[in-house]
Amino acid sequence: MVGPVIDADAQKKILGIIEQGKKEAKLAFQGKAPAGGYFVPPTVFVNVKPEHGIAREEIFGPVLAILRAKNLDEAFALVNGTDYALTGGLFSRSPKALERAQNEMLVGNLYLNRGCTGAIVERHPFGGFKMSGGGTKAGGKGYLENFLFPRSVAENVMRRGFTPPDEA
Residue 82, Cβ neighbours under 10 Å: how many? Predict the structure, then answer.
């Protein structure tokens, strides 16, 4: 079950990215989308290269681009080499690999040995950085402070000379 995307503009953008992906990489799977509404068919691409647009876009829809890495060093370089940093995930039985992911994967939300969608409100603050956001976390500590008007006042308190009598 795959729900609709947010609106017609999102649907059009994602379908355009899918068409571009078909020119760059190999289409491994494309499901069916229901008629009507803003549905996008689940789509999987393989043989994707880091420079392909399908690997360089932040896609909020059911599209998966699979890139191959020879080892964790290359995998982390691929993750960290993108312009976006919202969510990442790693499945591994190796505690060392999981620790490396925590230390080296530069993403806003890192999920280890679990699905990487479906942050739970009040348990998993959500937000990314780079082009995926300003680093703030929806639902996290201090989140509401991001909506305040930040203001700084600086005054030189060393006064020299005449002080008006009505202000003394």
Answer: 19
The pairing of strands 63-65 and 87-90 is: unpaired
Each residue of 142-151: pLDDT tens digit? 767 767 777 7
Please check whether residue 105 is in contact with residue 86, taking contact to mean a CB–CB distance below 8 angstroms: no
Q: Would you kindly state where each structural domain of the chain is located, as residue ranges? A: 1-68, 82-131
Q: Among 95, 123, 122, 90, which Cα is nearest to 107's?
A: 90
The model's pTM: 0.74
Coil, helix or strand for 44?
strand
Residues 6+ apart with CB under 8 A from 48: 21, 24, 25, 54, 55, 65, 66, 67
Taking only the tens place, the pLDDT of each residue in 16-47 is 999 999 999 999 999 999 999 999 999 999 99
Cβ atoms within 10 Å of 84's Cβ, excluding its own: 18
Q: Are 89 and 77 in contact (CB under 8 A)?
A: no
